[in-house]
C-alpha cells in the first residue's frame, strides 16, 4: 500500500497490515486488534467466491444481495463477540466505522448490509452516529447546514436513519444552527454533537463528555441503567499538561514520504507521547532525505541548504522505515551527522539498516557497503534479503507482526529503557535484515548489537555504546506506544535530546502516567473496533473515514 495514497500502513500483533484508523483505536482505547477487525471489499468478495467454489450455494446465482450483504453481516457478528481488551467474555458494545462518503459506489454493499442489520436487530440494539461537515464561511463566519441536510437525506434514502449527528466544524455550533439541523434532519437537539477545533487531540473525549455524548448513545441503546460516569481524570490532566508545554524539543524527521504527515502517523504520535512526560513541546522538522544528497546541491541549492540547516538545528534525528532506494543516501548522511556530532538518533526498520551501512562505510572502511535492496551486486552486503521472503509476490510476504527480541546485555540503554527485561515483544514489517555473516566484523569495530531474535542470528537492536543515544531497531516500536504508556525507545530519544536520559536511566523510566479508557461508562466494558454489539446484536455504527472496521 502506497503511503502517499493510504497514509501509514499500520501493523497489528497478528501481522495484519491495516488502515491507520485502527491505530487510532488501539491508541485511544489501549486495546489489541486483529486483522479480522478490518473488513475490506476484497476480503468479503474473496470469502463469497471461496464459498461458491466449494459449492456452498449449490449452484445458485451469486449476487450482491443477499450473498455479499449476508457475508458482511456474518463477519460483523463473528468478530464483534471477540474481546480485544484482554478481558474474558464477549464485549458489551461493539463499534463499527463505516468509511467513505454517503453516495460512494464502493460502500454501497456495506450500507445495504448495515441497513438490513439494523432492521433485523431492532431498536435499542443499533445506534447510528453520522459524522458530517458544517463548513464555516471565512468571510462572514456563517455556519452552513446544507451539506449535513443533504448527507442525512442521502443516508435515509439508502435505508439508514441516524440517531446521533456528530457535526465537525472549525467553531462551536450556534444554538440556532443546531435547532435548524434538528428540524431538517429529524434528530433531537440533545443528540447533535458539535466537534470543533481544540488545542490538542486529548481534549476530544472531554469535549464529547461535556456535551453528554455518552448519555445520548446510552439512551439509544437502553443502557442508562448499567452505566456510570466516564472516568476522564487522567485524560484531563494530560490534556491540560499538553497545553502548558512551551519549551520546544526539535526532532528532524528524515524520510521519503515527508510530503504527507499521515505516512508517519504512529511515529508522530509516539513522539508526542514521549514529549509530554519530558515536559517539552514537540516540534517536527520535516526533511526530505533526498534533499540532503549532493545531487540536490547541483539541482536545487536552496532545498539542499534548507535541509542541512534543519538537520543541524535539531535536538534529535529520527529516520523512520521505508522501501525503495530514493533518498537512501540522504538518510545515510543524516545517520553519519548524528554519529559524528553526538546528536541523539533513532533509526526504525530501514533507519536501523542505513545506520549499519553508514558505520560499515565510515568506520570499518567498506566504502561500497550497501543493502542488496539498493545494490544487488555489492561486494559488502551489510543488509540482505531474508531467506524466507518471496521475491515474486509482494503482498503479505514480509516478516510481519509481533516478534520477540532478546537483550544481549543488561547494561545497554535499550534494555534499561525497557525496564531491564530479558526480552520484549514488538511489531515488525520488513523483507531485509542485517547480514549475520558481517555482525562480528561490525562489532569488532565498535558497533553493538544489543538485541537479537530467538535464533541469535537476526539482529533486532543496534547501539553505539560511546554515544549519548544512537539506537537502531529492526522493529516498529511506534505501533505499541500509547498516550499513558510511551514507547521506551521514543522516550529515550526525547529524554536524550532534552538532557534527561541519565536521570531516567538512574532512577528508572517513569511508570505509566495515565490512560483512562473512560470514553464509555459501561461496567466490565469490552471494546471491539467497528460496530456496537450487545449480546450478539449490533448497537452502533460510526460513519466516517475509509474502509469498515469492526
3D architecture notes:
The chain has 550 residues and is α/β, with parallel strands linked by helices. A nine-stranded mixed beta sheet has the order 10-9-11-12-20-19-18-15-16, sandwiched between helices. Strands 3, 5, 6, 7, 8, 22, 23 and 24 form an eight-stranded mixed beta sheet that branches. Strands 13-14-17 form a three-stranded mixed beta sheet, with helices on one face.
What layout of secondary structure does this protein have?
Blueprint lengths: L2 H4 L3 E2 L5 E2 L2 H9 L8 E2 L1 H14 L9 H17 L12 E2 L1 E3 L9 H14 L5 E7 L12 H12 L6 E6 L5 H11 L6 E5 L7 H7 L2 H9 L11 H12 L3 E8 L9 H11 L5 E8 L5 H6 L1 H12 L3 E4 L8 H13 L4 E4 L1 H15 L5 E2 L9 E5 L13 E9 L5 H5 L5 E8 L1 E3 L4 H6 L3 E5 L6 E5 L6 E4 L14 H10 L3 H7 L19 E2 L2 E4 L2 E7 L4 E2 L1
Parallel strand pairs: 4-21, 5-23, 6-7, 6-23, 7-8, 9-10, 9-11, 11-12, 12-20, 13-14
Antiparallel strand pairs: 1-2, 3-24, 5-24, 14-17, 15-16, 15-18, 18-19, 19-20, 22-23
Catalytic activity: UTP + L-glutamine + ATP + H2O = CTP + L-glutamate + ADP + phosphate + 2 H(+)
Function: Catalyzes the ATP-dependent amination of UTP to CTP with either L-glutamine or ammonia as the source of nitrogen.
GO molecular function: ATP binding; CTP synthase activity; identical protein binding
